[in-house]
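worker-03 picked up job from queue 'complexes'. Input manifest follows; four sequence lines, order preserved.
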Amino acid sequence: MRFNTVTIKDIAKALGLSTSTVSRALRGGYEISEETKKTVTEYAEKINYRPNPIALSLKERRSYSIGIVVCEIANNFFSQAINGMESVAYTAGYNVTITQSHERFDREVLNVEHLASRSVDGLLISLSSESADVSYLKDLHKKGLPIVLFDRVTSEIDTHKVIADNFKGAYDATDYLIKLGHKRIAHFTSSAHLSVTGERLEGYKAALRDHGIPFNEDFVKFCGHGGINQEEIDDATKELLALNERPDAIFIAQDKLSTGCLHAIKKIAPDYFTGIKIAGFTNSNVVDLFNPPITAVRQPAFEMGQAAMELLIHLIESKMPVTEFETRILQTQLIVNNSKY
Amino acid sequence: MRFNTVTIKDIAKALGLSTSTVSRALRGGYEISEETKKTVTEYAEKINYRPNPIALSLKERRSYSIGIVVCEIANNFFSQAINGMESVAYTAGYNVTITQSHERFDREVLNVEHLASRSVDGLLISLSSESADVSYLKDLHKKGLPIVLFDRVTSEIDTHKVIADNFKGAYDATDYLIKLGHKRIAHFTSSAHLSVTGERLEGYKAALRDHGIPFNEDFVKFCGHGGINQEEIDDATKELLALNERPDAIFIAQDKLSTGCLHAIKKIAPDYFTGIKIAGFTNSNVVDLFNPPITAVRQPAFEMGQAAMELLIHLIESKMPVTEFETRILQTQLIVNNSKY
DNA sequence: ATCGTGTTCGGGAACGATTGCACAAAAATA
DNA sequence: TATTTTTGTGCAATCGTTCCCGAACACGAT
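worker-03 finished. Artifact:
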């Protein structure tokens, strides 16, 4: 604000009052006469006075703004979740600051620290695929920064969490593939230490087990960078194709991996598409337009964002320190041929 | 920052110095003895001191942060542009704050004003499809807020601008369709008062003219909300299908409209796809997976973001008031069958 | 006449950092 | 030895706002 130099002082000077009186008049302080209040508010209105949020932040040590950290906004799941968060924050009078970690731990730390030093009142974060050590977050949380984890969470931090039912989503997708007659189902997933990776892997295994299909280690491909670089996916695909017994279906655990895998197959072995069935987690709005059709496990991203923001604001505005935390689990949807299955 | 209470005062007290000395020692002031400097910096390091950006913003009336306003982050073009902006800002020591207008004028104004009051050092903005009146931006610009417009610009504001060569992009796409043998080419576009709409429409018209094809008013469909609601697109599609002489190709001027149109046709008249050719502006990373294949006009979004941020930072850091402004025009690419045409 | 008791307002200290100016002590010069 | 210069440090104002205290005044009760 190098401009908008209308301050409370200007009002005070113009009206022959003190800054304290003006401040109280504007805040509706009970100790100010109706008349003064009227004069002040009318004048403030006239000269278009806006309180300086920076000065307020310095004084109040809060900012009415909330920090969001995701790995990529160019990811349908996250952009939808952010929209959900915004919608709740907006009505509650908070602003949001969106940052991206690009799946890198150092960027994540930098973002979080910058947000914290900027006095965000709270933090919504989905961990990067590199984030194995979350002690920096833990410290901040201990110092009193309200945090709500969503999507990629960690048991290291005791706070509210919002996740999709990853186990069930993975189970349903795998189960669907099996019921279509597939028996050799591969699994593409991301970094092994992400919460979602484990949960989805378990769902996949459980579905196999329930149908008496043996689990094959070779069929599981971890792409540590979560689809950030296509090369990783290409390599995994090649490995799969090099197997004696090629898989006849693939279940993919991540949005970017799903499209990445389609690209890879299309590029490396387009004929392989015939007969193979692919199901994967994705919140893309255009899955129904995909040529090798894909069965989508869709997360309620918008609702997850809303829930996370609601929990965070509750945490921020709670008078008492909150000690009971909840993990909200939202159900996924299996989308087959553009309709709910 | 309700925690991280390590301030310059704490250091001063602990070391028996004044705050001014500590400040100067940390800043590397030439007037401080080497010994004191060392003591101070070492102690600051030890207790992990971080200067409070809020206090700095208040004092310096700048924040080393840059505001970005786009209509939707869930749009490939914008998320890619944002990545370009971030990359430049990051190396120059600036942070970015991303906000969304959701194609609404009131949200845009709210975002801009919030950013300005938060002392952003500059603003990068692509106008919403509702933004006909930009006087609020003009005022801010006059007051000294550095602004760079990108993508959807306006001639109302005299400043740096970064756009794609929309005319040529549209011309190339239309020309491509014509050369494939199509003569009845419809045009889907968004709000009429957006700069990009006009430029792309002109490119479309010019290509028709150059090939001696008459311009048909009925073939042009304006979707004012830019693809935010699918209904609008469905209606436009129906109108097109109801024509006596149905178009045999469509050129689409917007990312969301392109996919929206594919959805519409797929839903309303799937058989219509046979023989019809679609070309459209889109920065989707998955166009090659689309079933009704689409010829894409791809904007160099990342580079546009970089250019815009470079120009803005230049504006911010310029000692002299800048009076000469440039409009940087970047070339689009026609992507046919997943490769540059 | 004195003492509460409101009511309405102003003074001034915070919040964290920078910085012009003043001032001391030490060093250099006359 | 006296004076000037250099060097290192502190004081206090500033940014815009809030809020604790206290001041001034009026009014009714004692």
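worker-03 released lock.
Chain B touches chain A through 50 residues (CB under 8 Å).
Residues 301-317 of chain B form the longest helix (17 residues).
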